[in-house]
Specification:
Strand content: 5-15%
Distance between the termini: 112 Å
Shape: elongated
Structural class: alpha+beta
Helix content: 40-55%
Largest sheet: 6 strands, antiparallel
Length: 794
């Protein structure tokens, strides 16, 4: 009978216990599913951010290169204008003196002089026309031309000679860029297509216009060849997989030949060959049609396709950015390989997985703890309490989602209050874990830039104290605290070479840094748990007069959270020691804040709160790297990654140090001859190996008090200090033979050649150098003058 009664009680107590168990499992499963969904969403977000950043970097690289080419072309043409103007003025002065000395024979002598000046110059020719536009003198055509030059129309629908006549009415001198005839015997519209600079000067005694003409087509051709060489050597990214490719569009494009490949280090056999528009990748995608169509419509293209990974035969997905450089009819492009990006993302995935596993352990712990409490409660309490407990756990799920606590005061039963109290402890533990996770995550982020270590934690602390001082409730205080922790999360998307740059930033670099608030906003608004923090974080750099960023809002348009964050952020920045200045005291910081364009009414209310908060929170300044590590980081920005030698800018600074100490020294310039041919015959890898081995030989041959630099692709400089009355035979120490022999020992040890051509020729047969040496102060007084002398002779 007792056994039967015991079984019935167990059954009665087991049913509600089973129901509660299922309920908790359901809550746990829902919680786990939410955490897993957030984990997958975070991975997708991180990948999208990386892809976007990679696309932006590709776009920036191409547009920056095009900008450099345009500036180079502009500078070159300006130089040619100066040369042309000087020659025309020289001719004018000579003819004017000739006219004064001998008017009778002037015309004959003048034409003889202009002919001589024309044929002794490579690109400048001289002509004379009268005020009506008739050709008086043409060095290439002796017969008179019975044609009115003012009526001639060039291929760009302009009348070049009429323009010169009209301009001479108002001024005695002028300079224009015009298209002129190819053939003076047959002056027709299609002949007037030769680009060049035209300079005229009015010769009043004879009513002439003396015209100087500088042909630009050879100049532009040389510029194109120069940039083809430079772009062929351009490398960046993981394993140097990043490179530039250039296609010159055909004047009459067809499917068989829409353009000529000028640069493609990844596929050197395609260089100078026609490209077929119907070329597809291995999955059948006609990527050339895609990007050519985009470029014809909008001038640029982002295209995804499968392409050969550099230095392998593996075909992987590539995202390329291609832009039309209209002036030269070039398509210039670059891109990133998805396989390179996946390598970087793997580390981020591992971090996210560890966070997800930690959340799973927390869920499991809370569930086990709660199930234990429920089991005890169901044994002791009645069915009435069971229903109450079910209600409590439903409220627990809702409160947990809102990061709020359950209200114990509404419960009359002591046991239920006890259960609720322990559930609130679990919620508290979860909130503490969330806070700890945020602090840890921010600490990891700030580890990239050790100078700002602890900044986000202090900003969060100051912001919470300000919120409390102005009477905001605890929920709002907690929100502002989290926003303070996460306000700089967007710096994860700022490139290291800008974020970690020693010294002050350029204006353009500062403009890139300013994107961090937008990146923070984009990250937070995609996270359900933190999306209410996105707006305050986005606007923590706004100013009351609308001069801030990113949206230029005024104080009236800003939420209270953003205004609080702005004050806390600036206050911590001012009271923290930075590499370029010492920290201000809190009182000094307050005085500076009063001059800032922030919410001054709010600042006035919390001045004392900030000063008191500083005393309790800001006991130590930001930690700095050791001097050794800091020096190493500084050297990274001065050193050529490929060779380990100094960049040219760092080298010139060293030269200036020598000059400031008035120390005599020599500079030796070393040029590897024919590097482009070696790249063509043996491979780009062979050319790169020759460059790195030459750098190693230069390091070996350099003695004490010598510094070495890689000036650019295949040119090196070595500067050696000279002691008093000491001389140096630089051509002996760095002679051709020594360099060639040392390189041969490295590239063909024991007569085993490392690189051979298709004709079984060894690379050592093509190795040659040109060397030139200058001495300070004998040959020059400035670093620029000495470098110019070397470059002129190399």
């Amino acid at each position: 009978m007792m056994k039967h009664n015991f079984s019935m009680v167990s059954l009665l107590l087991g049913i509600p216990l089973f129901i509660a168990f299922v309920l908790i499992i359901t809550i746990g499963a829902y919680w786990y599913r939410y955490a897993e969904k957030s984990y997958n969403k975070n991975l997708k977000t991180i990948r999208e951010i990386y892809i976007t950043n990679a696309e932006n970097y590709s776009k920036y690289t191409i547009e920056n290169l095009i900008k450099q080419i345009k500036e180079d072309e502009k500078g070159t043409i300006e130089n040619k204008k100066t040369i042309l103007a000087n020659n025309v003025n020289r001719a004018f002065n000579y003819l004017y003196q000739l006219y004064r000395n001998d008017k009778g024979a002037f015309e004959k002598l003048a034409f003889f002089y202009l002919s001589e000046a024309t044929f002794k110059s490579n690109n400048i020719s001289f002509y004379v026309i009268d005020k009506s536009g008739r050709m008086v003198f043409n060095p290439f055509y002796n017969k008179p031309l019975n044609v009115k030059l003012t009526k001639l129309t060039s291929t760009d629908n302009k009348k070049p000679f009429l323009k010169l006549i009209e301009a001479s009415k108002d001024k005695d001198f002028g300079m224009y860029r015009q298209k002129w005839p190819y053939n003076w015997n047959f002056l027709s519209k299609q002949d007037l297509g030769r680009d060049g600079l035209t300079c005229f000067v009015k010769f009043r005694p004879m009513h002439w216009l003396i015209i100087g003409r500088y042909e630009l087509e050879p100049v532009i051709y040389q510029l194109k060849q120069k940039w083809v060489r430079q772009l062929s050597l351009y490398r960046y990214g993981k394993h140097n997989h990043g490179y530039i490719f250039v296609i010159e569009l055909s004047k009459e494009p067809s499917n068989d030949c829409f353009g000529i490949e000028l640069v493609n280090p990844n596929m050197p056999n395609n260089v100078n060959k026609c490209l077929n528009l119907n070329k597809s990748d291995y999955v059948g995608f006609f990527y050339r049609k895609k990007y050519l169509n985009d470029i014809m419509n909008k001038g640029y293209s982002f295209v995804k396709y499968y392409y050969k990974l550099p230095q392998t035969d593996k075909k992987v997905m590539k995202i390329s950015y291609i832009k039309l450089f209209k002036e030269w009819n070039w398509l210039i492009g670059t891109g990133i390989y998805i396989s390179d990006m996946n390598f970087t993302l793997a580390a981020k995935r591992q971090e996210a997985l560890e966070e997800f596993n930690s959340i799973k352990r927390t869920i499991a712990g809370i569930m086990l703890f709660t199930l234990g409490l429920l089991g005890l409660a169901y044994v002791l309490l009645s069915n009435f309490v069971e229903r109450k407990i079910s209600h409590v756990f439903k409220s627990f799920e809702q409160a947990l989602n809102r990061s709020e606590y359950l209200d114990e005061s509404k419960l009359k039963i002591k046991q239920l209050r006890w259960v609720t109290k322990n559930l609130n402890k679990a919620i508290k533990r979860f909130k503490e874990y969330e806070k700890g996770f945020l602090v840890s995550f921010v600490s990891v982020l700030e580890a990239r830039d050790i100078y700002t270590k602890g900044h986000s934690q202090r900003v969060a602390y100051y912001a919470k104290r300000i919120a409390k001082a102005i009477g905001l409730d605890e929920k709002m205080q907690e929100k502002i605290y989290k926003a303070g922790l996460l306000h700089d999360i967007g710096k994860i998307g700022i490139p290291d070479n800008i974020l970690l740059k020693p010294g002050r930033l350029t204006q353009n670099e500062y403009n890139i840094i300013k994107y961090h608030s937008l990146l923070s906003y984009e990250i937070l608004k995609r996270l359900e748990h933190f999306k209410d923090l996105a707006e305050p974080v986005k606007h923590h750099h706004e100013k009351c007069d609308g001069s801030g960023y990113p949206d230029g809002l005024t104080c009236k348009e800003l939420c209270i959270e953003a205004r609080i964050l702005a004050i806390a952020d600036i206050f911590d920045a001012l009271t923290t020691t930075r590499p370029y200045r010492k920290a201000f005291s809190p009182h000094e910081a307050i005085e500076i804040l009063k001059k800032e364009k922030i919410d001054q009414e709010l600042l006035e209310k919390v001045e004392d709160v900030l000063i008191e908060s500083f005393k309790t929170k800001h006991k130590t300044i930001a930690e700095f790297m050791s001097e050794q590590i800091d020096n190493i980081r500084s050297e990274i920005f001065k050193t050529d990654y490929m060779t380990g030698l100094l960049y040219i800018t760092a080298f010139i600074n060293k030269i200036r140090e020598f000059i400031s100490k008035n120390e005599p020294f020599v500079i030796i310039g070393i040029n590897i001859k024919g590097i482009s041919k070696i790249n063509y015959l043996f491979s780009t890898e062979a050319g790169n190996t020759l460059i790195t081995e030459t750098a190693e030989v230069i390091k070996t041959l350099s003695k004490d008090k010598c510094i070495s630099s890689r000036a650019y692709a295949d040119v090196f400089y070595v500067a050696c200090s000279l002691k008093e009355n000491q001389k140096i035979d630089c051509m002996d120490r760095f002679s051709k033979e020594k360099l060639k022999n040392a390189i041969k020992e490295r590239l063909a040890p024991n007569n085993k050649c490392k690189f051979t051509s298709k004709n079984n020729e060894c690379i050592t047969e093509y190795i040659d150098f040109k060397i030139y040496c200058v001495e300070y102060p004998k040959d020059g007084s400035t670093a620029e003058e000495l470098i110019y002398l070397i470059e002129e002779n190399l």
